[in-house]
Amino acid sequence: MKNTLRWTLALALAVPVVGCKKESKSEEGSKPAATAQPQQVDIAALEKAAEKWVDQEFQPSTLSREQQLAEMKWFRDAAAPYRGQTINVVSETIDTHVYESKVMAKAFEEITGIKVKHDLIQEGDVIEKLQTQMQSGRSIYDMYVNDSDLIGTHVRYGHVVPLSDFMAGEGKDVTLPTLDIDDFMGKSFVTGPDGKMYQLPDQQFANLYWFRHDWFSRPDLRERFKKKYGYELGVPVNWSAYEDIAEFFTNDVKEIDGVRVYGHMDYGKKDPSLGWRFTDAWLSMAGVGDKGFPNGKPVDEWGIRVEGCNPAGASVARGGETNGPAAVYALTKYIDWLKKYAPPQAAGMTFSEAGPVPGQGNVAQQIFWYTGFTAPLMKPGLPVVNADGSPKWRMAPSPHGPYWQEGTKLGYQDTGSWTMLKSTPLERRKAAWLYAQFTVAKTTSLKKFLVGLTPIRDSDVRSEHVTKVADKYGGLVEFYRSPAREAWTPTGTNVPDYPKLAQLWWQNISLAVEGEKTPQQAMDTLAEQMDDVLGRLERAGMQNCPPKLNPVKDAKTWFDAPGAPQAKLANEKPKGETVPYEQLLQAWKEGRAK
């Protein structure tokens, strides 16, 4: 009861007094708000709607019913000046955002009186709309759910409203007192070098190692594997073991229960998503970059070096590592495994097409599997789901390549985050900010997590309800409760212009996949083009931390210096190493990374 009273009092004191509210002026040149005058509404109807949604939809929650209704009352009161308006927001199309668009937007309208048009489009289109608004100054959407991968872009160009400033200043009257920023697991991912928070996490998912736990547990397969390789069939710790397991299932086992099986799954179509396959930390898994979290310093997982906060080069000649031995090894293994161990159709697939394939029941493991596909692989009736609804598969930490060192990031997390642009009129930003907070508030966040399985709050993943259902999610909950999650991070602040640089990856990688260039040639060209872009950005000038390219030096100079880039190893395939899944899971449950 004390907690309930404290919440109610805090929320009540924070509600703005509508009659005393000063009119805020829109930025010069911005379009006016859609509705100048607030509409008169039936407050009793809004109250009844809040009760309906809390009771019938937003359960379970880490809050009590009284605390949930107190949050809803705050939203209802704070929304008063904006009732009758229609705000426009956009996000990529994944299950979590479908839930927001179809369910949460309706709930928000019924509870607050503010209408929401929540568009769902492809991720590349989201970035294109964002770029257009930043370049033209014309407001297209009132807020964007935009990957935190663009944090370096947002910090440098100055088009994005730093949320730290907004919440303490012009948006204070529309900032939820119980938002609890420190509860967001991705807080560090959306924080710039200046210590300011630029985006608000809305959903996140990692790429982890996925495998058929039922197959790995079979005594006959375990015996055959150990006889051939001299160690136990288990979760691979290094890429050598992953390769051995891929070879074993593809060429030794070949068939299980009458089905042709493969030891690896991936995708390789010439498409922008091929770039994500690499920029989403594939190189760091091999060992590219320096130690440090959330991203290596001074060299990150893209191979970009920064001096202070200024990008200084991607090529080895300038102290970067995009075309270093570790990066070339990463590309080489990707191509080899795709051709040797994956289903034949994998090479012609995109990210979205390949994601559900392991659910068809013919794949033994996948080194680079996004947990955003967890929900589709839990559907009753799938070959990878038991009759009682439990998964036959599990997820575990990704294995690392021979160049990797302890203390280096090991994988990637996609953190879609609410992003506010300065070119959007202030009053529209405020109304959209209310909706953004509604989608991540403690009243709603746990239910959203259970729908999309893309958790954002530490309190949700540690909740009593999630503890009860954790077993059905194949290791997802244990991963997010463990310190291991800290080694999985999005693209960091070293990347000064994500849209310009990201497109270079898939265009060059595809040439190596198709055999038109060797992996070394492809990465050399990529590094050179990245340096060219950094040079143009340096000449054009940026508002904050612009690139300042290092002079070209002999590669040996950089190889001999401490840290990245690393020289080529004499042995890129050490002995395979595995760990029992149950041992790994127990470590996570005890709060250990491994």
Q: How would a crystallographer describe the biggest sheet?
A: 7 strands, mixed
DSSP, total strands:
13
Helical stretch tally: 23
Mean pLDDT, all residues: 92
Kindly estimate the percentage of residues that lie in beta strands according to DSSP. 5-15%
Uncertain stretches of 5 or more adjacent residues:
1-37
Radius of gyration: 25 Å
The proportion of residues forming helix, as a percent range, comes to 40-55%
CA-CA gap between termini: 40 Å
Determine the structural class based on helices, strands and strand pairing.
alpha+beta
Query: Which overall shape is indicated by the principal axes computed on the Cα atoms?
Result: globular
Polypeptide structure, described:
It is a single chain. The chain has 594 residues and is an alpha+beta fold. Helix content is 41%, strand content 11%. The protein has helices at 2-14, 43-56, 65-78, 95-112, 123-136, 151-157, 163-168, 213-216, 219-229, 239-253, 272-279, 282-286, 325-341, 351-354, 426-438, 442-452, 458-461, 464-469, 476-481, 498-513, 519-540, 555-560, 581-589, and strands spanning 86-92, 115-121, 143-147, 200-212, 235-236, 255-256, 259-260, 305-307, 310-313, 365-370, 393-396, 413-419, 578-579. Strands 1, 2, 3, 4, 10, 11 and 12 form a seven-stranded mixed sheet that branches. The protein has a two-stranded antiparallel sheet with strand order 5-13. The chain has a two-stranded antiparallel sheet with strand order 6-7. Strand 8 and strand 9 (310-313) form a beta hairpin. It is globular. Residues 1-37 have low confidence and may be disordered.
